[in-house]
Amino acid sequence: MSALPSVIERLPGTGVAVIGDVMLDHFLIGRVDRISPEAPVPVVRFERDEFRLGGAANVAANVRALDGTPQLVGCIGADEAAAHLRSALESRGIDASGLVTDETRPTTRKVRIVTTRNQQVARVDYEDEAELAHATEQALRAAASHAAATSKAVVLSDYRKGVIMPSVIAAAVAAANGAPLIVDPKVPDAARYHGVTLLTPNHHEAELMTGTRILTAEDARRAARALHKATRANVLITWGEHGMWLMDASGPSTVELAIPATAREVSDVTGAGDTVVATLALALACGASLSDAARLANHAAGIVVGRFGPATVTREELLRAL
Q1: What angle is formed at CA 83 by the lines to CA 82 and CA 85, rounded to 5 degrees?
Q2: Which one of 102, 219, 274, 292 is the catalytic residue?
Q3: 40: CATH
Q4: Total domains in the fold of the chain
């Protein structure tokens, strides 16, 4: 554990390319006093709106909160949600020059109706999961290549909204030129991520990708081995209150270990995976071992799950958590 503070001290200014499905999380917050006479649903009396970065944009926000330098690549529409997204990125000092605008698609937006007690009443998704147009794909490949080639680590944030196509993965792998490439996967086909450095599925995603149940540490071990066999990548399975399972096959001998959870109180796991991959990418880019990077990411996740909605963690908070 003694190596972790020195890793945190090396994070500022480290460049990370974040390529993937950007989103805007829109919270409609209000007070519930009664049930509707029209249907058995609560009536929410509107009080305020909140906009937060989601998906790959939240990964970039986490990199920035840790004093790293993110380059964000993704696809947005020409709409009001895109304007909110760009404004939020600009306010955080995040380079969004890699965002590609496709006027035929909406910006992915998750509208959550939430009470003042942080209870979610309903969610409305604005999105298009159809295949991207050829011109959009070409623009994303070019942006991904540039960002990967000029960063010390690369994150592929795959939320199955169309950006992380095989051609974009291939472009990022080629341009990374040996830099750590971390994938937060959502697609059941693990083989499409062949050539990356590290896969970080949660246990539900790992179950889908391997066709197995994960109920014990031995189950997690078998799933990690199956994913490694399919991709040749190292594997970190995040497992909620059970912590993480790491399979590090990067050295002369394979390391497999369980990392206990650090969260004291869980409020909301939304976006915790974004915090994990951002922290991993920064730590690996700074020369940390995979096991140290995973432990650091575990502490970061333990902080953000105690907060409502997509959240970030700072270097100072990480140092205190250690």
Answers
A1: 60
A2: 274
A3: 3.40.1190.20
A4: 1
From first to last of the 322 residues of the chain, give the pLDDT tens digit: 578 999 999 999 999 999 999 999 999 999 999 999 999 999 999 999 999 999 999 999 999 999 999 999 999 999 999 999 999 999 999 999 999 999 999 999 999 999 988 889 999 999 998 889 999 999 999 999 999 999 999 999 999 999 999 999 999 999 998 899 999 998 888 999 988 999 999 999 999 999 999 999 999 999 999 999 999 999 999 988 888 999 999 888 999 999 998 766 655 566 688 999 999 999 999 999 999 999 999 999 888 887 766 778 999 999 888 8
pTM of the model: 0.93
Evaluated on CA atoms 119, 117, 273, 90, the torsion sign reads: positive
Range of the domain at 247: 4-321
Single-letter residue type at 55: G
- From residue 18, alpha-carbon distances to 24, 46, 97, 270, 302 in Å are 16, 35, 12, 18, 22
**Widest Cα–Cα separation across the chain:** 67
274 is catalytic: yes
φ, ψ dihedrals at 162, nearest 5° = 115, -20
Q: Is 208 exposed, middle or buried (0-12, 13-18, 19+ CB in 10 A)?
A: middle
Contact 20, 163 (CB under 8 A): yes
